Amino acid sequence: MGGFAGGAGVVHGVQGEVGPGALADSSGVHGITNSSFPTEGVFGESRSLGGSGVRGSDSESSVAGTYGVIGESHSSNLNAAAIYGFAFQATGNAGIFVNNGVGHSYVATQIGGVGYGLYTDSRIRGGSLDIVGAPKNFVSPHPEDPGLEIRYASVEAPTVDVYFRGTASLANGVARIEVPDHFRFTAREGTYMTTLTPARLAHRFGCPILPARAKQLRDGRYRIIYSPLLRPNVALPADEDILQTTARLMRIFESWIRATPEQWNYLKRRWPKHDSTSPRSNLVGGQSLLEEAI
């Protein structure tokens, strides 16, 4: 069967229509191929700019589920597909889906020299994973409460890391930050980390670590206080020595903070600033340096 339409205006080379009394699975145009060679039951080709070889459109007035184009596959072969899209050019698209309220989604495409299996303007949802916008956020279900979800953002790092931030106020010289449930659910206990660089360098070069701290005095001056040298045990395997040295160094830091918590200051902003309703640490001599630091 062939069809051709010429002339101006809206014309149809082939038009298929199903009447209101037709049974299910009826079709206006039905294409079948029984050849053992690659053939097409229905073949559409466009040679005009912006044209369509095959176009499907559903009824805007329909309240039931309607489909402009529907594809079915009954084969168990991996290469069988209900709908198959192929792009001959590397910068082409095997499929484009557009929703006026959402945006464009491209399948098997290349943009800016980078190949994508799926490229979309909107969010991506797959099972329990929900990837949203920029930065790269993702959502996972709460393991204990189906009514909640855990929302995280990806960290730009060559490793898979999980971290959280918290705030605390001093009480009797102690500031305690509770580890939230969502952190415990996603980070295995015993793998919480601190920097190993000082201990790693000490073991590598066989040099001691000189712990030092600066104590602020009331007259605007500072006093540098040194602790005894912390020597690595290079006779131990590298991993074991680095862990032991780091633990000893952290204990020294902990003793300093516990002795004079108002002097503790971390150069990188680890926690957000307090708002006007947050409790403040109240130390003898006025506002604490810790409060100013954070």
Describe what this molecule looks like in 3D.
The chain is α+β, with helices and mostly antiparallel strands. Among the domains are: 74-122, no CATH class; 195-293, no CATH class. 14% of the residues lie in helices and 17% in strands. The chain has 4 helices and 9 strands. The protein has helices spanning 181-186, 197-205, 238-259, 289-293; strands spanning 93-99, 103-111, 114-120, 124-126, 129-132, 137-141, 149-153, 212-216, 222-226. It has a 4-stranded antiparallel β-sheet, with no helix packed on it. Strands 1-2-3 form a 3-stranded antiparallel β-sheet, with no helix packed on it. A two-stranded antiparallel sheet has the order 8-9. It starts with 92 loop residues before the first strand and ends with a helix.
Return the structural class. alpha+beta
Percent of residues in helices comes to 10-25%
Cross-sheet strand order for the largest sheet: 4-5-6-7
Tell me the fraction of residues in β-strands, as a range: 15-25%
**What's the average pLDDT?**
75
Short description:
About 15% of the residues lie in helices and about 15% in strands. The protein has about 290 residues and is α+β, with helices and mostly antiparallel strands.
Write the layout of secondary structure elements.
Layout: E1 93-99, E2 103-111, E3 114-120, E4 124-126, E5 129-132, E6 137-141, E7 149-153, H1 181-186, H2 197-205, E8 212-216, E9 222-226, H3 238-259, H4 289-293
Antiparallel strand pairs: 1-2, 2-3, 4-5, 5-6, 6-7, 8-9
Helix pairs in contact: 2-3
Main traits of this protein?
three-stranded antiparallel sheet; disordered C terminus; four-stranded antiparallel sheet; 9 strands; 294 residues; alpha+beta; 14% helix
